[in-house]
Fold this protein.
Amino acid sequence: MPMVSETPIRDNTGLAIAQDKPWLAPLAGYSDLAFRLLSREFGAQVVCSEMVSAKGLYYGSSGTELLLETTGDDDPMVLQLFGNDTAIMERAMAPLVERGYRWFDLNMGCSVRKVVKTGCGAAMLCDIPNAVDVARTMVRLAGEGRVGFKFRLGWDADEDVYLDLAKRLQDVGAGWLSLHPRYARQGFSGEARWSALRTLVDAVDIPVIASGDLFHAEDAVRCVRETGVAAVMFARGALNNPAIFEEFTTLMQGGTVLRPDPEKTMRILRRHVALARAHCPDKTALFKMRSLVPRYVKLFPGAKHMRNQLTECTTWEKLDELLEQFFARWQAEGASFEPERICCPPSDGE
Ligand SMILES: Cc1cc2nc3c(=O)[nH]c(=O)nc-3n(C[C@H](O)[C@H](O)[C@H](O)COP(=O)(O)O)c2cc1C
């Protein structure tokens, strides 16, 4: 049995948040419609969009509309926005609510220079009153419980703001809180401090979603057990292996997972290519696939050769050919390959 928080959780999100229902994290450049649909097919229960600029929406920038693309199968989808200006956020978001988007998230965790130099993303952790004003506006527009906030511990070590911020966000009607427990200045270095997730779970009574160093399904099982979070969201773990969602559910139910699974990897790749071709403009989709294929196949022999060949791949037909060759070689030479058996025995006291 996973750990249960001592404080009863107040879930008024309409997302049926639960420990065994994993989320796909927002991933700029990756969590597009095709990847969200793929993740759902492999067991993601809630999916987040790439971050969308409130300013971009307000000024009608080209490309922004593409980030908003969704379909009936892409539900429930959380649309993540970034922006630090209350007035612009209001004008950007109101039409989205009218168009039927139901769940929103505010990015207060992105530490990329391009974003923080405009005062957005994790830079919002340096001005809590403004962050709360933007949050209040978003909740007023979308409704109580319909907006989540994703943030880090603070800007720099010893500048923890997450607890104070979390309580204020709860007070203005946040539906859920997602914490990536690193400082903005850390980027992705060091280790995510999961103990802060536990502290946050104890401090608020709305759902806390864990992010950070959930590279494999078993990491997430451990995170749930150690922290009592309401749910986990997979980011880099999903980019390496979209089957992570079903693996996580299997492990949470006490089952065993065999990994890596070459047949499944091939199935995932073919399906991702089909979804990308159906939902994204050709060139962008092909470039994205070129960057994802090496992640999917990195545990298999021949992955390096594949990566080199991909740099010259400019058509879908060529990509198909490379994939076929890769797996044909695998079938011919991979007989001695033993996948790892992974299970998560119940922890002490369960
Ligand atoms: C390629 C990439 C793009 C990301 N884009 C976003 C984003 O648009 N919005 C956001 O809140 N976080 C974004 N993140 C952060 C992730 O959602 C997540 O919090 C972080 O990767 C920590 O989780 P992990 O260690 O399990 O990968 C991104 C991370 C990566 C690696």
